[in-house]
Design brief:
Layout lengths: L1 H11 L4 H13 L4 E9 L6 E7 L7 H11 L4 H8 L3 E3 L2 H7 L7 H5 L5 E9 L2 E10 L7 H67 L5 H29 L3 H5 L1 H16 L2 E6 L3 H4 L3 H21 L4 E8 L5 E8 L8 H4 L3 H10 L4 E6 L4 E8 L5 H6 L3
Helix pairs in contact: 1-2, 1-7, 2-7, 7-8, 10-12, 12-14
Protein backbone atom coordinates (compact mmCIF):
# COMPACT_ATOMS: atom_id res chain seq x y z
CA UNK A 1 0.00 0.00 0.00
CA UNK A 2 2.90 2.33 0.68
CA UNK A 3 4.02 1.62 -2.88
CA UNK A 4 0.57 2.61 -4.12
CA UNK A 5 0.59 5.85 -2.20
CA UNK A 6 4.04 6.77 -3.41
CA UNK A 7 3.28 6.07 -7.06
CA UNK A 8 -0.03 7.90 -6.79
CA UNK A 9 1.86 10.94 -5.54
CA UNK A 10 4.35 10.81 -8.39
CA UNK A 11 1.55 10.38 -10.94
CA UNK A 12 0.07 13.62 -9.76
CA UNK A 13 3.31 15.51 -10.05
CA UNK A 14 4.83 16.79 -13.24
CA UNK A 15 7.20 13.96 -14.01
CA UNK A 16 7.17 12.38 -17.44
CA UNK A 17 5.29 9.16 -17.96
CA UNK A 18 8.53 7.28 -18.37
CA UNK A 19 9.78 8.57 -15.01
CA UNK A 20 6.51 7.68 -13.31
CA UNK A 21 6.37 4.17 -14.74
CA UNK A 22 10.08 3.68 -14.11
CA UNK A 23 9.55 4.62 -10.47
CA UNK A 24 6.54 2.36 -10.31
CA UNK A 25 8.51 -0.61 -11.65
CA UNK A 26 11.20 0.06 -9.03
CA UNK A 27 8.53 0.15 -6.30
CA UNK A 28 6.89 -3.07 -7.42
CA UNK A 29 10.29 -4.68 -7.54
CA UNK A 30 10.70 -4.03 -3.79
CA UNK A 31 7.83 -6.38 -2.98
CA UNK A 32 8.89 -9.79 -1.70
CA UNK A 33 9.02 -12.57 -4.27
CA UNK A 34 9.43 -10.36 -7.35
CA UNK A 35 12.60 -10.93 -9.35
CA UNK A 36 11.90 -8.71 -12.34
CA UNK A 37 9.35 -6.09 -13.36
CA UNK A 38 8.47 -4.54 -16.69
CA UNK A 39 5.86 -2.01 -17.65
CA UNK A 40 4.98 -1.59 -21.31
CA UNK A 41 2.63 0.87 -22.91
CA UNK A 42 1.59 1.86 -26.39
CA UNK A 43 3.31 4.90 -27.80
CA UNK A 44 0.96 7.92 -27.65
CA UNK A 45 -1.45 7.85 -30.55
CA UNK A 46 0.05 4.62 -31.79
CA UNK A 47 -0.13 0.92 -31.43
CA UNK A 48 3.52 0.12 -30.98
CA UNK A 49 4.51 -1.13 -27.55
CA UNK A 50 7.42 0.37 -25.73
CA UNK A 51 9.16 -0.58 -22.52
CA UNK A 52 8.52 2.29 -20.12
CA UNK A 53 9.71 0.86 -16.84
CA UNK A 54 12.00 -2.00 -15.96
CA UNK A 55 13.53 -3.30 -12.75
CA UNK A 56 15.64 -6.30 -11.95
CA UNK A 57 17.04 -6.80 -15.46
CA UNK A 58 20.41 -5.29 -16.17
CA UNK A 59 20.33 -4.88 -19.95
CA UNK A 60 17.16 -2.99 -20.71
CA UNK A 61 18.17 -1.74 -24.18
CA UNK A 62 18.18 -5.05 -26.04
CA UNK A 63 15.02 -6.46 -24.49
CA UNK A 64 12.60 -5.38 -27.18
CA UNK A 65 14.73 -6.53 -30.09
CA UNK A 66 15.15 -9.94 -28.49
CA UNK A 67 11.44 -10.15 -27.80
CA UNK A 68 10.63 -9.27 -31.41
CA UNK A 69 13.14 -11.81 -32.67
CA UNK A 70 11.43 -14.49 -30.57
CA UNK A 71 8.03 -13.41 -31.78
CA UNK A 72 9.21 -13.61 -35.38
CA UNK A 73 10.26 -17.20 -34.72
CA UNK A 74 6.76 -18.01 -33.51
CA UNK A 75 7.02 -17.55 -29.74
CA UNK A 76 3.68 -16.76 -28.14
CA UNK A 77 3.82 -13.54 -26.13
CA UNK A 78 1.87 -13.54 -22.90
CA UNK A 79 1.75 -9.75 -22.83
CA UNK A 80 -0.35 -9.75 -25.96
CA UNK A 81 -2.59 -12.42 -24.53
CA UNK A 82 -3.27 -10.55 -21.31
CA UNK A 83 -3.98 -7.37 -23.25
CA UNK A 84 -6.12 -9.15 -25.83
CA UNK A 85 -8.16 -10.98 -23.20
CA UNK A 86 -8.10 -7.95 -20.90
CA UNK A 87 -7.34 -10.05 -17.87
CA UNK A 88 -4.41 -11.05 -15.74
CA UNK A 89 -2.50 -13.93 -17.24
CA UNK A 90 -0.54 -16.23 -14.89
CA UNK A 91 2.01 -18.63 -16.32
CA UNK A 92 3.48 -20.97 -13.70
CA UNK A 93 6.83 -22.43 -14.68
CA UNK A 94 7.18 -19.96 -17.54
CA UNK A 95 10.95 -19.74 -17.28
CA UNK A 96 11.48 -23.49 -17.73
CA UNK A 97 8.98 -23.48 -20.57
CA UNK A 98 10.75 -20.59 -22.35
CA UNK A 99 14.15 -22.21 -21.96
CA UNK A 100 12.83 -25.48 -23.41
CA UNK A 101 11.25 -23.74 -26.41
CA UNK A 102 13.61 -23.01 -29.36
CA UNK A 103 11.33 -20.18 -30.51
CA UNK A 104 12.36 -18.31 -27.38
CA UNK A 105 16.05 -18.86 -28.07
CA UNK A 106 16.85 -15.14 -28.63
CA UNK A 107 15.54 -14.40 -25.11
CA UNK A 108 17.23 -17.31 -23.35
CA UNK A 109 20.24 -15.40 -22.08
CA UNK A 110 18.09 -12.43 -21.15
CA UNK A 111 15.62 -14.36 -19.00
CA UNK A 112 18.41 -16.37 -17.43
CA UNK A 113 19.84 -13.21 -15.85
CA UNK A 114 17.37 -13.53 -13.00
CA UNK A 115 16.32 -16.28 -10.68
CA UNK A 116 12.61 -16.66 -11.40
CA UNK A 117 9.99 -19.29 -12.17
CA UNK A 118 6.52 -17.92 -12.83
CA UNK A 119 5.33 -15.05 -14.97
CA UNK A 120 2.34 -12.77 -14.48
CA UNK A 121 1.15 -10.28 -17.05
CA UNK A 122 -1.49 -7.79 -15.89
CA UNK A 123 -3.07 -5.56 -18.51
CA UNK A 124 -3.28 -1.81 -17.88
CA UNK A 125 -6.96 -1.22 -18.51
CA UNK A 126 -8.77 2.03 -18.93
CA UNK A 127 -12.38 2.24 -20.06
CA UNK A 128 -12.21 -1.31 -21.36
CA UNK A 129 -9.10 -0.66 -23.45
CA UNK A 130 -5.69 -2.19 -22.82
CA UNK A 131 -3.12 0.60 -22.69
CA UNK A 132 -0.21 -1.69 -21.95
CA UNK A 133 0.83 -4.33 -19.45
CA UNK A 134 2.62 -4.81 -16.17
CA UNK A 135 4.75 -7.95 -16.29
CA UNK A 136 6.44 -9.54 -13.31
CA UNK A 137 8.84 -12.43 -13.07
CA UNK A 138 8.28 -14.25 -9.75
CA UNK A 139 11.18 -15.66 -7.76
CA UNK A 140 10.99 -19.35 -6.76
CA UNK A 141 8.68 -19.61 -3.75
CA UNK A 142 4.97 -19.49 -3.14
CA UNK A 143 4.31 -18.29 -6.70
CA UNK A 144 1.38 -16.14 -7.78
CA UNK A 145 -0.56 -15.97 -4.52
CA UNK A 146 -3.90 -14.08 -4.40
CA UNK A 147 -2.15 -11.35 -2.39
CA UNK A 148 0.45 -10.79 -5.09
CA UNK A 149 -2.13 -10.92 -7.87
CA UNK A 150 -4.28 -8.34 -6.08
CA UNK A 151 -1.29 -6.13 -5.51
CA UNK A 152 -0.33 -6.33 -9.19
CA UNK A 153 -3.93 -5.58 -10.17
CA UNK A 154 -3.88 -2.44 -8.01
CA UNK A 155 -0.52 -1.34 -9.41
CA UNK A 156 -1.72 -1.93 -12.96
CA UNK A 157 -4.74 0.26 -12.28
CA UNK A 158 -2.43 2.95 -11.00
CA UNK A 159 -0.21 2.65 -14.05
CA UNK A 160 -3.24 2.85 -16.35
CA UNK A 161 -4.26 6.08 -14.60
CA UNK A 162 -0.78 7.49 -15.17
CA UNK A 163 -0.90 6.56 -18.86
CA UNK A 164 -4.36 8.08 -19.25
CA UNK A 165 -3.24 11.24 -17.56
CA UNK A 166 -0.11 11.52 -19.72
CA UNK A 167 -2.15 10.97 -22.89
CA UNK A 168 -4.52 13.73 -21.88
CA UNK A 169 -1.65 16.11 -21.24
CA UNK A 170 -0.06 15.18 -24.57
CA UNK A 171 -3.29 15.92 -26.43
CA UNK A 172 -3.83 19.11 -24.48
CA UNK A 173 -0.32 20.36 -25.26
CA UNK A 174 -0.80 19.55 -28.93
CA UNK A 175 -4.03 21.48 -29.02
CA UNK A 176 -2.42 24.44 -27.25
CA UNK A 177 0.51 24.40 -29.66
CA UNK A 178 -1.82 24.29 -32.68
CA UNK A 179 -3.83 27.21 -31.32
CA UNK A 180 -0.67 29.19 -30.64
CA UNK A 181 0.60 28.65 -34.19
CA UNK A 182 -2.72 29.67 -35.67
CA UNK A 183 -2.66 32.83 -33.57
CA UNK A 184 0.91 33.60 -34.66
CA UNK A 185 -0.03 33.07 -38.29
CA UNK A 186 -3.03 35.37 -37.92
CA UNK A 187 -1.02 38.05 -36.12
CA UNK A 188 1.75 37.92 -38.68
CA UNK A 189 -0.71 38.09 -41.49
CA UNK A 190 -2.75 40.92 -39.99
CA UNK A 191 0.13 43.12 -38.89
CA UNK A 192 3.48 42.48 -40.55
CA UNK A 193 2.17 41.28 -43.90
CA UNK A 194 -0.20 44.23 -44.19
CA UNK A 195 2.53 46.73 -43.29
CA UNK A 196 4.95 45.25 -45.75
CA UNK A 197 2.22 45.42 -48.34
CA UNK A 198 1.75 49.18 -47.67
CA UNK A 199 5.50 49.74 -47.89
CA UNK A 200 5.36 48.15 -51.33
CA UNK A 201 2.46 50.37 -52.40
CA UNK A 202 4.24 53.48 -51.16
CA UNK A 203 7.44 52.52 -52.96
CA UNK A 204 5.52 52.02 -56.20
CA UNK A 205 3.81 55.39 -55.75
CA UNK A 206 7.16 57.02 -55.06
CA UNK A 207 8.57 55.53 -58.27
CA UNK A 208 5.57 56.86 -60.20
CA UNK A 209 6.09 60.35 -58.80
CA UNK A 210 9.83 60.26 -59.48
CA UNK A 211 9.25 59.35 -63.10
CA UNK A 212 7.10 62.45 -63.54
CA UNK A 213 9.69 64.82 -62.02
CA UNK A 214 12.34 66.61 -64.02
CA UNK A 215 14.73 66.92 -61.10
CA UNK A 216 18.19 65.46 -61.91
CA UNK A 217 17.92 63.20 -58.85
CA UNK A 218 14.58 61.78 -60.01
CA UNK A 219 16.06 58.71 -61.84
CA UNK A 220 18.02 57.85 -58.72
CA UNK A 221 14.86 58.07 -56.58
CA UNK A 222 13.04 55.93 -59.14
CA UNK A 223 15.82 53.31 -59.02
CA UNK A 224 15.71 53.16 -55.21
CA UNK A 225 11.91 52.91 -55.27
CA UNK A 226 12.13 50.03 -57.76
CA UNK A 227 14.68 48.27 -55.58
CA UNK A 228 12.49 48.66 -52.50
CA UNK A 229 9.56 47.25 -54.47
CA UNK A 230 11.66 44.21 -55.37
CA UNK A 231 12.75 43.71 -51.77
CA UNK A 232 9.18 44.02 -50.57
CA UNK A 233 8.12 41.31 -53.04
CA UNK A 234 10.81 39.01 -51.69
CA UNK A 235 9.88 39.71 -48.06
CA UNK A 236 6.24 39.09 -48.88
CA UNK A 237 7.03 35.79 -50.50
CA UNK A 238 9.03 34.73 -47.44
CA UNK A 239 6.32 35.91 -45.08
CA UNK A 240 3.68 34.07 -47.02
CA UNK A 241 5.78 30.96 -46.62
CA UNK A 242 6.05 31.51 -42.87
CA UNK A 243 2.33 32.15 -42.50
CA UNK A 244 1.56 29.04 -44.52
CA UNK A 245 3.97 26.97 -42.49
CA UNK A 246 2.25 28.09 -39.30
CA UNK A 247 -1.20 27.15 -40.52
CA UNK A 248 -2.61 23.79 -39.51
CA UNK A 249 -0.88 21.50 -41.91
CA UNK A 250 -2.42 20.65 -45.23
CA UNK A 251 -1.92 16.94 -44.56
CA UNK A 252 -3.88 17.26 -41.32
CA UNK A 253 -6.66 19.15 -43.05
CA UNK A 254 -6.98 16.99 -46.14
CA UNK A 255 -5.42 13.70 -45.09
CA UNK A 256 -2.04 12.55 -46.40
CA UNK A 257 -3.07 10.97 -49.70
CA UNK A 258 -5.38 13.76 -50.88
CA UNK A 259 -2.77 16.32 -49.77
CA UNK A 260 -0.07 14.56 -51.82
CA UNK A 261 -2.33 14.34 -54.86
CA UNK A 262 -3.11 18.04 -54.56
CA UNK A 263 0.60 18.79 -54.23
CA UNK A 264 1.47 16.72 -57.30
CA UNK A 265 -1.29 18.27 -59.38
CA UNK A 266 -0.23 21.77 -58.36
CA UNK A 267 3.37 21.09 -59.42
CA UNK A 268 2.26 19.58 -62.73
CA UNK A 269 0.07 22.58 -63.47
CA UNK A 270 2.53 25.28 -62.43
CA UNK A 271 5.75 23.77 -63.71
CA UNK A 272 4.65 21.62 -66.62
CA UNK A 273 6.43 18.62 -65.10
CA UNK A 274 4.86 15.16 -64.87
CA UNK A 275 4.62 13.82 -61.35
CA UNK A 276 4.07 10.12 -60.91
CA UNK A 277 2.73 9.39 -57.43
CA UNK A 278 2.67 5.92 -55.89
CA UNK A 279 1.83 5.87 -52.20
CA UNK A 280 1.01 2.91 -50.00
CA UNK A 281 -2.79 3.22 -49.75
CA UNK A 282 -2.88 1.70 -46.26
CA UNK A 283 -0.32 4.10 -44.86
CA UNK A 284 -2.86 6.68 -43.85
CA UNK A 285 -5.12 4.14 -42.22
CA UNK A 286 -2.27 2.71 -40.18
CA UNK A 287 -0.47 5.87 -39.17
CA UNK A 288 -2.52 7.92 -36.80
CA UNK A 289 0.25 10.21 -35.58
CA UNK A 290 -0.43 13.59 -37.23
CA UNK A 291 3.10 14.86 -36.64
CA UNK A 292 4.52 11.89 -38.55
CA UNK A 293 2.10 12.32 -41.44
CA UNK A 294 2.99 15.98 -41.63
CA UNK A 295 6.72 15.22 -41.70
CA UNK A 296 6.18 12.68 -44.48
CA UNK A 297 4.20 15.24 -46.43
CA UNK A 298 6.77 17.99 -45.94
CA UNK A 299 9.71 15.76 -46.88
CA UNK A 300 8.00 14.80 -50.14
CA UNK A 301 6.98 18.39 -50.75
CA UNK A 302 10.51 19.74 -50.31
CA UNK A 303 12.10 17.02 -52.44
CA UNK A 304 9.53 17.64 -55.17
CA UNK A 305 10.03 21.39 -55.05
CA UNK A 306 13.80 20.98 -55.11
CA UNK A 307 13.50 18.84 -58.23
CA UNK A 308 11.45 21.39 -60.15
CA UNK A 309 13.39 24.34 -58.76
CA UNK A 310 16.92 23.09 -59.42
CA UNK A 311 16.83 20.29 -61.99
CA UNK A 312 14.39 21.16 -64.81
CA UNK A 313 13.11 17.57 -65.00
CA UNK A 314 10.40 16.24 -67.29
CA UNK A 315 9.27 13.57 -64.85
CA UNK A 316 9.45 13.19 -61.08
CA UNK A 317 8.51 9.85 -59.58
CA UNK A 318 7.36 9.88 -55.96
CA UNK A 319 6.85 6.66 -54.09
CA UNK A 320 6.24 5.91 -50.43
CA UNK A 321 5.92 2.34 -49.33
CA UNK A 322 6.61 0.15 -46.36
CA UNK A 323 8.84 -2.84 -46.14
CA UNK A 324 7.03 -6.12 -45.71
CA UNK A 325 6.88 -5.91 -41.93
CA UNK A 326 5.35 -2.44 -42.34
CA UNK A 327 7.58 -0.98 -39.68
CA UNK A 328 9.76 1.19 -41.95
CA UNK A 329 8.58 3.70 -44.47
CA UNK A 330 10.69 4.42 -47.53
CA UNK A 331 10.13 7.55 -49.52
CA UNK A 332 11.74 7.96 -52.93
CA UNK A 333 11.61 11.13 -54.97
CA UNK A 334 13.44 10.53 -58.23
CA UNK A 335 13.78 13.12 -60.98
CA UNK A 336 15.27 12.88 -64.46
CA UNK A 337 16.75 16.39 -64.35
CA UNK A 338 20.17 17.99 -64.36
CA UNK A 339 21.53 16.27 -61.26
CA UNK A 340 22.83 17.72 -58.01
CA UNK A 341 25.89 19.95 -58.32
CA UNK A 342 28.92 18.67 -56.45
CA UNK A 343 28.85 21.67 -54.14
CA UNK A 344 25.17 21.17 -53.22
CA UNK A 345 26.07 20.69 -49.58
CA UNK A 346 27.68 24.15 -49.47
CA UNK A 347 24.80 25.85 -51.20
CA UNK A 348 22.44 23.95 -49.04
CA UNK A 349 19.52 26.14 -48.20
CA UNK A 350 17.04 25.28 -45.55
CA UNK A 351 15.37 22.47 -47.50
CA UNK A 352 17.83 19.61 -47.09
CA UNK A 353 18.44 20.48 -43.45
CA UNK A 354 14.74 20.54 -42.76
CA UNK A 355 14.15 17.20 -44.52
CA UNK A 356 16.89 15.62 -42.42
CA UNK A 357 15.48 17.13 -39.22
CA UNK A 358 12.04 15.80 -39.97
CA UNK A 359 13.37 12.31 -40.68
CA UNK A 360 15.71 12.17 -37.70
CA UNK A 361 12.91 13.22 -35.36
CA UNK A 362 11.56 9.69 -35.91
CA UNK A 363 14.96 8.02 -35.94
CA UNK A 364 15.12 8.06 -39.74
CA UNK A 365 17.49 9.45 -42.35
CA UNK A 366 17.63 11.14 -45.76
CA UNK A 367 20.10 10.36 -48.55
CA UNK A 368 20.54 12.30 -51.78
CA UNK A 369 22.21 10.30 -54.54
CA UNK A 370 22.95 10.83 -58.22
CA UNK A 371 21.05 8.69 -60.73
CA UNK A 372 22.28 7.92 -64.23
CA UNK A 373 20.17 10.90 -65.12
CA UNK A 374 18.83 13.08 -62.35
CA UNK A 375 18.66 12.69 -58.60
CA UNK A 376 17.18 10.33 -56.05
CA UNK A 377 16.16 11.57 -52.62
CA UNK A 378 15.46 8.65 -50.33
CA UNK A 379 14.08 9.06 -46.83
CA UNK A 380 13.68 6.14 -44.46
CA UNK A 381 11.57 6.46 -41.35
CA UNK A 382 10.49 3.95 -38.73
CA UNK A 383 6.69 3.99 -38.67
CA UNK A 384 5.43 5.07 -35.24
CA UNK A 385 2.20 3.14 -35.56
CA UNK A 386 1.74 -0.35 -36.82
CA UNK A 387 -1.67 -1.21 -38.17
CA UNK A 388 -4.31 -3.66 -37.08
CA UNK A 389 -2.98 -6.57 -39.09
CA UNK A 390 0.46 -6.16 -37.56
CA UNK A 391 -1.07 -5.76 -34.13
CA UNK A 392 -2.96 -9.03 -34.48
CA UNK A 393 0.23 -10.78 -35.47
CA UNK A 394 1.54 -9.62 -32.13
CA UNK A 395 3.90 -6.92 -31.07
CA UNK A 396 4.93 -8.08 -27.62
N1 LIG B 1 16.56 17.35 -57.20
C1 LIG B 1 17.64 18.14 -57.28
N2 LIG B 1 18.31 18.29 -58.45
C2 LIG B 1 19.39 19.09 -58.52
N3 LIG B 1 19.89 19.78 -57.50
C3 LIG B 1 19.29 19.69 -56.30
C4 LIG B 1 18.14 18.86 -56.13
N4 LIG B 1 17.77 18.94 -54.83
C5 LIG B 1 18.64 19.77 -54.25
N5 LIG B 1 19.55 20.23 -55.12
C6 LIG B 1 20.71 21.11 -54.82
O1 LIG B 1 20.93 21.08 -53.42
C7 LIG B 1 20.95 22.39 -52.91
C8 LIG B 1 20.38 22.40 -51.52
O2 LIG B 1 18.98 22.20 -51.51
P1 LIG B 1 18.08 22.88 -50.37
O3 LIG B 1 16.69 22.42 -50.53
O4 LIG B 1 18.75 22.63 -49.07
O5 LIG B 1 18.22 24.41 -50.67
P2 LIG B 1 17.46 25.32 -51.70
O6 LIG B 1 16.38 24.55 -52.40
O7 LIG B 1 18.50 25.94 -52.57
O8 LIG B 1 16.83 26.43 -50.79
P3 LIG B 1 15.53 26.31 -49.85
O9 LIG B 1 15.08 24.89 -49.87
O10 LIG B 1 16.00 26.74 -48.51
O11 LIG B 1 14.53 27.21 -50.45
C9 LIG B 1 20.16 23.21 -53.90
O12 LIG B 1 20.56 24.55 -53.88
C10 LIG B 1 20.48 22.55 -55.21
O13 LIG B 1 21.69 23.04 -55.72
MG1 LIG C 1 14.95 23.50 -51.37
Amino acid sequence: MAALARTAASTASNSSLEEVLGAMAAEIQLSPGIAGTQIMTFAPGGDRLQLMGSAGFSDVETFFDLLMASRDRGAELATLRSMGERRQCVLPGRRAQMLADPNWEPMHAYVSQLDWEDFVSTPLLSRGKALGALNVYLAPGPGATPVILDFLGAMAEQAALAVDYATLIHEERDAVRREERKRLARDLHDSVVQHVFSIGMQAKALGGIARRLTDPLAPRVDAVATEVTGLVDAVQRDLRGVVLALQPSVSAKLGLLPALHALAEGIERRHGVSVDLAVDPLLEEDVKEPAFTEDVYQIISEALHNAVKHAAPTLVRVSAWRETDRRRLRIDVVDDGLGVPTDAAERSGYGLVSMRDRASRWGGSVAVTAEKRGTRVRAELPVPYVGAEQRDKGTA
